[in-house]
C-alpha cells in the first residue's frame, strides 16, 4: 500500500551518487528528507485502515442484519397478520400497466420510520434508498414519497385497529395484567395556526378594527379633497377597497360559525380547536387520550379528541375495557377528569374509578368561611336531607331542575336544599352572603361522585402510582421522539397517526422487556383470528404452477434426445 508513495517520494529526490558529489550540507538535507518520509509512513501505519472502495465483496442483505435487530420483529409481525381483515386498503392487481406495491410494504416503512423518529414521507423515501435496515426490510423495494404519504392518510381506521390487535397480542404474551390502568391526556399541536382559528369574540374584534380604520380613511379623503392630492386619494381608496374585502371575509366566517353550532372555527383544519395547554397558554391542538396498564406501563387504549379532559373519562375507559376483554377494571385519573356523568357511566359499566377530588371552594372574607364549605354539610340518604354545621336540616321539595353548560354543550338535573332557620342563624354571615340563606345543589350523579371520593381518600398509595404509570409515556413521545405535533388534517386521520405512535411505543417497550428472540417466539405462538393463514399453501401452489411448464418442457426435450 505504501510502496507507491515511497517510490514517488524517492523519484522526486536526486540520485544518491549525485548527492554525494555535492556539498556536505546537501547530503544532510537528503538524509533529513528520508528520515521525515520514514516517520510519516510510521505514523500512518498506526491508524486503522479502511477497505478499498474498489474491492469486491460477496454478501447478502441477510448478512448485514443481526438476529436481535428490531426490524426482524417488524417484518415478522407484518407478515403474520392479514392486513385486509383489519381494514387496510388492498392494492388491486391490474392486468396492464405498472404493478402496484403490496400494502404490507408501506406498513413496514411506517413502523420502521416512527420507531426511529422519521415520519416525513420524503425522508422515508430517502431511507428506502440508503438505509441497509430498510433495504433488508423491504427487499430493496423503493416506493416514492407520494405513495408512502397516501398510505397513511388512506388507512386511519385500519391503523387504529392494528393498535388494538397488538394490545391483544401483548395480553396473550402476559405483558399486560388488565386489572389497573391509569388514564391521562396530552395536547398535540394541530396543522392550524392561531391566526386561522376564530371565535365570535375574535371576529367582532376584527370587524370593529375594520370599521374604525375605514372611518379613519374616509376622514383622510375629506381632508385630501381640499388639498387635491390625486396620489394620496388613490392610495386611500385602495386601502378602503381592501378593508371591504376583509369585511366580507369575516362576515362569511361568522355565518360558518353560527351554522356549525361550535364555539370556535378553524379554517385550515376544521376539526382542530384552541385548547388550554398549560396555565394560560392556549394552542390550536388535539387532545391525545391514553390508558396505560400498571404491569409494564404499556398503552392499552388510545384515541384523540378535540376538547378538554372534563368529558373524556368514560369513552377512553370503555375502550380500554373492550381492548382488554375484561369484566371489571380499576381506573386511576387526575382531577381534570372529575365529572359526575362520566363517573356514573363508568360505574354502570363495572369500571371502578379513583378520580382525584377537586377543591370544593375557598373561603373568603365576605362570603363562606372554611368551617361552612359544602364538604362540611352531611347528607342523609334515607331522609334525602342535609345537616349543616349548626345542626339545622336542609330539605328539598323533590323537584328536579335542569342546568345546561353552554361551553361543554351538556346538561344535568339537580335538586335544591334549603332551611328557614338561616334567617335567624347567628353565624349566617360566615356561611353565605345570600339574603335568603344558604342553598345547596345536589346533582343526579351525586351518589356515584361520593362513592368515588370515598375511594380516593381511602386509597392514597394506589392513586399515587398514577403518575408513575402514565406520565413518562408522554414525555418519551413528545420530548425524546419529538412527536408533539401532527402531520395530518382532520380528526379521523389524526387519530390514525396517534394510534400508530402508541403502537410503535408498545413495540419498542415490549422489545426492551423481552428481547427480539423471545418476542418472536411469542408472536409465533400467538393465537389470533387476524393471523395470515394458508401462506405456505399459497406459496407452494404458486411454485407448482410456476415450475410445472418448465418441468414439462425438460421432459419433452429429454424424450426427443432419447428418441434420437
Summarize the structure in words.
With 564 residues, the protein is of the alpha+beta class. The chain is built from 20 helices and 14 strands. Strands 1, 4, 5, 6, 7 and 8 form a six-stranded mixed sheet that branches. The protein has a three-stranded antiparallel sheet with strand order 9-10-11, with no helix packed on it. Strands 12-13-14 form a three-stranded antiparallel sheet, with no helix packed on it. A hairpin with a 4-residue loop joins strand 12 (401-405) and strand 13 (410-417). Helix 11 packs antiparallel against helix 12 (230-260), helix 13 runs parallel beside helix 14 and helix 18 (491-514) packs across helix 19 (516-525). The radius of gyration is 37 Å and the shape is extended. Mean pLDDT is 84; it is low at 1-10, 535-547 and 558-564.
Question: Can you lay out the helices and strands and say which pair or pack?
Answer:
Layout: H1 3-11, H2 16-21, H3 24-45, H4 61-64, H5 70-80, H6 103-115, H7 121-130, H8 132-138, H9 145-154, H10 156-172, E1 180-189, E2 197-199, H11 200-227, H12 230-260, E3 264-266, E4 273-278, E5 281-293, E6 299-305, H13 313-324, E7 329-333, H14 340-348, E8 351-355, E9 378-380, E10 385-387, E11 393-394, E12 401-405, E13 410-417, H15 428-431, E14 440-443, H16 446-458, H17 460-480, H18 491-514, H19 516-525, H20 535-563
Parallel strand pairs: 1-7, 7-8
Antiparallel strand pairs: 1-5, 2-3, 4-5, 5-6, 9-10, 10-11, 12-13, 13-14
Helix pairs in contact: 5-6, 5-8, 5-19, 6-9, 6-18, 7-8, 7-9, 10-18, 11-12, 13-14, 14-16, 18-19
